[in-house]
Amino acid sequence: MLEIRNLHAVVEGKEILKGVNLTIGDGEVHVLMGPNGSGKSTLSHVLVGNPRYEVTEGSITFNGKDILALSPEDRSHEGIFMSFQAPIEIPGVSMTNFMRAAINAKRKYLGLEPLKGSEFLNLLREKRQIVGLDAHFMSRGVNEGFSGGERKRNEIFQMAMLEPTFSILDETDSGLDVDALRIVAEGFNRLRNEKTSAMVITHYQRMLDYLKPDFVHVLMDGQIVREGDAQLGYDIENRGFDWIRETV
Amino acid sequence: MKNSLTQYTELFAQYRQVLEQNAAPVLNNLRDAALNVLNSAGLPTAKSERYRYCDVQKLLEPDYGLNIRRVTSGRNLYRDFRCAIPKLEADLFHTENDVPVLPPDYDVRKALASDVCVVTLRQASDLLPEIVQQHLHSLASQHNDGLMALNTLLSQDGWLVYAKGGSAQKHTVQVVNTATGRTPMMMNRRLLVIAEPGASLDLILCDRTDGDAGFLSTQVTEVVIGEGADVKVSVLDETNQHTTRFSNLLVRQDVNSRFTLNELTLGSGQSRSTTDVLLAGGGAYVELNGTVIADGSQLADHNIEVVHAVGGCQSDMLYKYVLGDSSVGAFAGKVLVRQDAQQTISQQTNANLCTSDTARAFSQPMLEIYADDVKCNHGSTVGKLDEAALLYMRQRGIEENEARLLLQHAFVNEVLERIDLQPLRDRLSHLVEQKFRGRLGKRCKGCDFCG
Ligand SMILES: Nc1ncnc2c1ncn2[C@@H]1O[C@H](COP(=O)(O)OP(=O)(O)O)[C@@H](O)[C@H]1O
Ligand SMILES: [Mg+2]
């Protein structure tokens, strides 16, 4: 599904990614771990095409397509979704209008007619329930006045609406209490199937328990320095990153 | 060589007789005083405190024609006009260039008897002489302003909108000013609004152009609001980019009155709006709202002065500009609180969004306070579109241009939401979107009314 080869990326003149290699197959969930500042969010932003991040070397192919040539919106239409580490507030653009614009843009890309008003509202209701997001959030501005936990649930709600094939969850679990984490993780699990894959950035064992990832990768100083199965994640949870650093 | 001013004063000297014969008598009484102001103060220059961002002399330089003999095209604006605001119930009046044109079969007697009476100033000179003499120019005469004097020198007619007291029902009046000439033309428009104590009035003023000739308009609107009266004025400017528009709005509010202004500037090449509000009676409330969406090389210059002359009044200003291409937005808002105006509450906000690197915003909120027990706030911001918000929207699949449009619309929505007349708010919101999409002023299918 996704193949990242020797990826180098620069932000504000500073090289952050220094040759990342990563392959993610259909139906797989990969966990990406690494100390703060190692470049995990940078990798996520490069994957979705944030124009502030410049790719200086390497390639990313997604289902055989060179996605570096695509705009962020086309990458989204191709099935890539990111749950942002810090979802931004967009006052004045209501959640409903925002989602309608997003859904219909995707349908247009796929050559489909815009959704009818009632169909759209039904979809909105159905998907809200996956993460238990109350109806009144839909008439607010995007993330406007949402608590930290509500924002994260809103990310998974949007994921449910857009039905991506590849999702990036950038610390979607951070700052959530036990219940909110369960809602988010279970919501995510309900959206999984043998065709969808994910790259999940997390620091928490609890998330590993819920997700049961197929692979764990450790990113340090812009490179993947270790790979393993879920056990690697538990080891890091117990021992931190220093022991890996010493063995690199 | 004729300078900007003498080209008009000489024309006036030469044609004064014809001009006055074709004018409302009440206006003729004011011309000598106007000439005095022009001769002494002259036209504003770049040094004039309130005209720092607008080169009046240069804008008045071109040779515009005047329609002194009041010729009209004879076309039936009431029949041809297709841009009525959907679902709005309003009494509609048309001005062709600067000639007020009454609806066909307009019953003046009936108008005089109704709660809100709309007549031309010419008719008012005959039919309501005391009222019009008492109020016309009563506010403008307090200002030594060359532009307003030029309007007074040359204007020949206009409208009187007279809302009588005690009318329980709210009335909506819409005046549509259309410039129809095929050659560059100067138009001098005049409007007098009187709201008697307790009266209630919604007034919508639309400025449009038919065709792409260059126009110069000066307009002086005086609004006299009696005790407890409630007046809302909405101004929509969707004239073409060759238009130079000078607008002066003067308001005087008595005890416990309310005045709300909503200005939406979508058009005009060069537009200057001056608003002066005098809070003369305790408990008066004024709300001034403005939205500017400018592109190309548009200039949108708002200059506002609110005077709290007595205590216990409230003023609230919210102006938002979206400036694209190499447009220039200027906002200068001054709140003057006189010594006796205790317990004044005043809020002033100006926010600007520059969507290109060449657009410029000048923002100058000012407070001048001589009373000690007041609550006054002001704030101003100049910013760009939020790149993080753009990325967020694009990540969800919303195309970049569409995302920009949504963000810009959201930015000005805060102002548009203050319009409580729903059909008007919907219409303005629609026009804002058309403007953002570059579709404003494009001829609608099946209509040949505008450019
Ligand atoms: N938009 C940005 N502007 C400037 N520096 C950035 C930006 N994004 C990331 N960086 C820098 O890149 C490095 C990696 O950051 P990040 O990818 O956020 O790490 P992580 O998500 O692993 O904690 C840090 O040194 C950070 O300061
Ligand atoms: Mg991060």
Structure, described:
The complex is a heterodimer of chains A (248) and B (451). Chain A has 248 residues and is α/β, with parallel strands linked by helices. Helices cover 38% and strands 29% of the residues of chain A. In chain A, the strands form 3 sheets. Chain A has a 6-stranded mixed β-sheet with strand order 6-9-10-3-11-12, with helices on both faces. In chain A, strands 2-1-4-5 form a 4-stranded antiparallel β-sheet. Chain A starts with a strand and ends with a helix. Chain B has helices at 4-21, 25-28, 31-40, 56-60, 77-80, 108-113, 121-127, 129-135, 146-154, 387-395, 400-416, 422-436, and strands spanning 65-66, 91-96, 99-101, 116-120, 159-163, 171-179, 185-195, 200-209, 215-225, 230-237, 243-253, 258-265, 270-279, 285-294, 299-308, 314-323, 328-337, 344-354, 360-369, 374-383. In chain B, the strands form 2 sheets. In chain B, strands 1, 4, 5, 7, 9, 11, 13, 15, 17 and 19 form a 10-stranded mixed β-sheet that branches. A 10-stranded mixed β-sheet of chain B has the order 3-2-6-8-10-12-14-16-18-20, covered by helices on one side. In chain B, helix 10 crosses helix 11 (400-416). The interface between A and B is medium-sized, with 31 and 22 residues. The site of adenosine-5'-diphosphate has 12 residues of chain A, from helix 1.
